[in-house]
UniProtKB/TrEMBL annotation:
Cellular component, GO annotation: nucleus
InterPro entries in alphabetical order: Ankyrin_rpt, Ankyrin_rpt-contain_sf, FN3_dom, FN3_sf, Ig-like_fold
Gene Ontology biological-process annotations: regulation of apoptotic process
Protein name per UniProt: Fibronectin type-III domain-containing protein
Per-repeat ranges for ANK: 139-171, 172-204, 205-237, 245-272, 273-305
Organism: Gopherus agassizii (Agassiz's desert tortoise)
Domain called Fibronectin type-III: residue spans: 7-104
Keywords: ANK repeat
Amino acid sequence: GDPQDPVPLDLNTRKVTHHSIQLSWDLENTAQRKGPQEQWLKISIEEEDPKLHTYGTIYTGYARQHVIEGLQPRTTYRFRLKVTGSTGECSYSPAVSISTTREPMSGEQLHRAVSMNDVEAVLNILQGGHVKVDVPDKLGFTALMVASQKGYDRLVKILVQNGTDVNQKNGSGKDSLMLACFAGHLDIIKYLREQGASWEVRDLGGCTALHWAVDGGHCEVIEWMINDGCQVDAKDTCLEWTPLMRVSAVTGNKDVASLLIEAGADVNVKDKDGKTPLMVAVLNNHEELIQLLLDKGADATVKNEYGKGLLEMARGFHRHSVVILLEENKRKLSGNTNCPPPVLGSQAREVTK
């Protein structure tokens, strides 16, 4: 056929997304793109204005396909093809109606559903297949990290069953196991361990899950971790603190310290600056912990890097009740029982105000 002849027109939909439609057309004559271009058939795509029912041109050229971008999701559009011959005669294809798809679920929606513990929504989003289960939120947390931290047992299992990586770390190097240990969710901890989470993992500061569990102060969790074989005296990289040292520095929790010591934590371990747990407990005024450490054989004769002993430190910080504790301990060790016993505990505070 001659290019000037009107042609049978067919507008095909190639690919539809939530924001684009790809149209193609196969005109028998466009195959014969011979001769000068002005003799070729010129193609226009026209889009109908739904209110006015008039058509406006959105593409003109010689291609065999075109992608229309920037469309709204779940919306119906009407298009037709206009073909102009070299002498100006036009023919139109029948109009076609095409609807864009629904917008795929986003990582943001997954995280919103997880933080609200909305199991049904999480399942829907994951079944949609558009959202990667490990997509991080703005803080670098995966859905599993959030669910582990918040104690959402059922979601944790769903996420793992949907292929989430239990060993994924956030920006500071923490994994889901550390977050669950800090928050004290024992069932989740047990499940993550079954799924291959490791006690050996370190965050960027060199802390292990036990360091974090100690900060969280959940004795039941710590006891289970120790029985499960986590290392009791791992040192972080920053200050070379063991979990026991962290108790002295952070919480002063006597029960946690007691568990660690029973499990073999070294009461006389030294950090990067040569400080021991007892020294740090004195500096932080953790009286019950000081007593426990002394009872468990902590060396009370240690000196800091400036040659100061514990008593000198306690006096320097006006820690009167700590001074009394240390003096009493000294007396016990020297076997000198002639002196009057010091006033201990709450009365000591009254006396030394």
